[in-house]
Write a structure and sequence with these properties.
The chain is α+β, with helices and mostly antiparallel strands and about 625 residues long. It folds into four domains: about 220 residues, 2-Layer Sandwich (Heat Shock Protein 90), CATH 3.30.565.10; about 150 residues, Ribosomal Protein S5, domain 2 (2-Layer Sandwich); about 80 residues, Rossmann fold; about 140 residues, Four Helix Bundle (Hemerythrin (Met), subunit A) (Up-down Bundle). The strands form four sheets. Strands 1-6-5-4-7-3-2-8-9 form a nine-stranded mixed sheet, with helices on one face. A five-stranded mixed sheet has the order 10-11-14-12-13. A hairpin with a 3-residue loop joins β10 and β11. About 35% of the residues are buried. About 0% of the residues have low confidence. It binds adenosine-5'-diphosphate. The site of adenosine-5'-diphosphate (ADP) has 17 residues, from α2 and α3.
Length: about 625
């Protein structure tokens, strides 16, 4: 005798939403049904702890997934706790879970906003079966009951319930697949879904497989049950039992990177929160796994109680560790946690903090253990590490330890420690220069005295460098200093040097004043002599505390207001042209040539510092004028 029951209003609504609005994530139905089956098995196990006769002979727990191509059904069977008649009404006739109700509200909103991802991220349990099936039968027998029941529904108005017979305890969910879901009748497809979403469910998931008769190859093939999932996830295995090759395979399956990783961090923590994690640090980049793009989805997979909750749990790693992939598994979160809840979840915050530190320590280790591999990593991802210095300032000193830099004197990148070990100069200082490219920074007039003294300089040409260096400020209590700063002196001045400087200063005094007035006191704060400029004619220096040209350009690009800064112009008294200018000045204070040359050289200095000129036409005209003189 079967009896018709109506769904309660809310169940009707969620089914309506599921069957009509979101097909893009329909494949998660299997994950949901397998997860229910696995839960039911857990409950049976628990029950057996207190009721020793509960399991009877049926002690071999497994979930069977079976395809019937003729009947066009997909059946998921478990030998878990099963459901009594009352439980059927309660559990799959109404929406008992408060989480589902909340989800449903979100789903309705999302429908308007087009956020189709929600369903894949949370799952809606049993009802997701109706995303792929036109009708569903649930045949179930509670381990506490001798009667079995069959629940049938087309997911529209209600369900039918009738008594039936069933051997043994447990539940069988039969999906009568809708026409457009017939690919689910393919073995490989179902296996793929199991592997993708339920690979690490702790109960064996079995499917039938055809096997040849070894002795008689012509005999019709037989079928036998074979386990599809891996019951023991790699991150739960003991480290010593895992070969590098296994780590690599697993890395490739989670990262889309076809190369081997640089390293892995495998940990099992039982402290404030307990979690298992297996994270990977890449070495290469490729089109599929180029994690330098900050807008790309990133983050490890998050498993809660062996169920995959999120493909990319950004909540577990900051964006500057977007190159890290892997898996985190915890039992300290409820399964039906929503993404909003994840965003401000204390458990996840604790895990995140601990993961960030682990990544940092691992990078330190890898630099020492595999310098070549690390160099490749640094080449590919080094600029992201610099974001880390900027954004996570309490760790900046540690992060700085794993950074690698191009420098004036070495042909490969070096660390700050290596810089300091080989430092040549009177006062230990980390000198750097920022700019657009290596050739641009090497052309700086300030480089001359460093080349001459063989004092190394970090050549910082990444966009983030300007900010990173500003935040870092010092490393192991040693100051980082721009070579363009006004108080850079590689050697202490001797008495003799000082005297010499004074006399030159006197000789040039009036000319310096004229140069300043020619360029304009609104642009130039003062004009000084600097004999350490190598071949350069002169250089423009930013006064202490003011924004240097690189910073100024960046602020402008971001639409920020930039205060006018008067620069200090430094003339090289050893330069031939400067000497010639002085001669001209002596001969004729009002010399037109001198004024032209002054303006021209000023434009050169700007070009060197900023890499661009506002009045480029004037510059070209003047260059041609001088070229004309040359050809005379
Ligand atoms: P959830 O599993 O998150 O509670 P579902 O909608 O998937 O939500 O399932 C509702 C309830 O139905 C479950 O809590 C469980 O009590 C019952 N149920 C579903 N599937 C099974 C099953 N295979 N065996 C026993 N009970 C089940």
């Amino acid at each position: 005798m079967s009896k018709q029951h109506n769904f309660e209003a809310e169940t009707g609504r969620i089914l309506e939403l599921l069957t009509h609005s979101i097909y893009s994530n329909k494949e998660i139905f299997l994950r949901e049904l397998i997860s229910n089956a696995s839960d039911a098995i857990d409950k049976a196990r628990l029950k057996a702890l207190t009721d020793t006769s509960f399991l009877g002979d049926d002690t071999n727990f497994e979930i069977k997934v079976e395809i019937d191509k003729e009947a066009k059904t997909l059946t998921i069977t478990d030998n878990g706790i099963g459901m009594t008649e009352e439980e059927i009404h309660k559990h799959i006739g109404t929406i008992a879970k408060s989480g589902t109700k909340e989800f449903m509200e979100k789903l309705e909103k999302a429908k308007e906003g087009g956020e189709h991802n929600l369903i894949g991220q949370f799952g809606v349990g049993f009802y997701s079966a109706f995303m792929v099936a036109e009708s569903v039968d649930v045949i179930t027998r509670s381990g506490l009951d001798t009667k079995a029941h069959k629940w049938t529904s087309d997911g529209k108005s209600g369900y039918e319930l009738q008594e039936t017979t069933k051997e043994g305890r447990g539940t069988q969910v039969v999906l009568h697949l809708s026409e457009w879901n017939h690919e689910l009748l393919e073995d490989w497809k179902v296996k793929e879904l199991i592997k993708k979403y339920s690979n690490y469910v702790a109960v064996p998931i079995m499917m039938l497989e055809e096997v040849e008769d070894e002795e008689n190859k012509d005999a019709p093939k037989k079928t036998q049950w074979k386990q599809v999932n891996e019951t023991k996830p790699i991150w739960k295995k003991s480290k010593t039992s895992i070969k590098d090759e296994e780590y690599k395979d697993f890395y490739q399956s989670v990262s889309m990177d076809f190369n081997a990783p640089l390293g892995h961090i495998h940990s099992s923590i039982e402290w404030k929160v307990s979690y298992n994690s297996l994270l990977f640090i890449p070495q290469q980049t490729n089109a599929f796994a180029d994690m330098r793009d900050p807008n790309k989805e990133y983050g490890p997979k998050l498993y809660v109680q062996n169920v995959l909750i999120l493909e990319n749990a950004k909540e577990l790693l900051p964006v500057w560790l977007r190159f890290v992939s892997g898996v985190v598994e915890t039992t300290d979160l409820p399964l039906n946690i929503s993404r909003e809840m994840l965003q401000s979840n204390a458990t996840l915050e604790t895990i995140k903090k601990s993961l960030v530190k682990k990544v940092l320590w691992e990078l330190k280790k890898l630099r020492v253990k595999d310098p070549e591999g690390y160099a490749k990593f640094a080449e590919n991802y080094g600029s992201i590490l610099k974001e880390w210095v900027y954004y996570e300032q309490d760790l900046k000193q540690d992060v700085a330890e794993v950074l690698e830099f191009n420098t004036l004197l070495s042909d490969k990148k070096i660390s700050l420690d290596e810089y300091l070990e080989n430092f040549k100069g009177d006062t230990k200082t980390i000198y750097y220069i920022t700019g657009k490219s290596r050739s641009e920074v090497l052309a700086s007039p300030y480089m001359a005295q460093f080349v001459e003294n063989k004092t190394n300089v970090l050549l910082l040409t990444d966009t983030i460098d300007e900010w990173m260096i500003w935040v870092l400020d010092e490393y192991k209590e040693i100051k980082l200093k721009s070579i363009t700063a006004s108080d850079v002196k590689l050697k202490e001045e001797t008495e003799e040097d000082k005297k010499k400087a004074e006399t030159t200063q006197k000789q040039f005094k009036d000319m310096l004043e004229l140069v300043k007035n020619t360029i304009g006191t609104e642009k130039i704060e003062k004009v000084e002599l600097n004999p350490n400029l190598g071949n350069a004619l002169w250089a423009l220096k930013t006064p202490d505390g003011a924004m240097n040209p690189q910073m100024e350009k960046m602020m402008k690009a971001m639409g920020q207001p930039v205060p006018e800064t008067k620069r200090v112009l430094e003339l090289n008294p050893e330069n031939k042209l400067v000497k010639a200018m002085k001669k001209e000045f002596k001969a004729d204070v009002k010399s037109k040539k001198l004024a032209d040359l002054t303006n021209y050289a000023y434009m050169q200095a700007i070009l060197l510092e900023w890499g661009e000129l506002e009045n480029i036409a004037d510059f070209v005209a003047m260059t041609n004028k001088f070229a004309g003189e040359y050809l005379k």
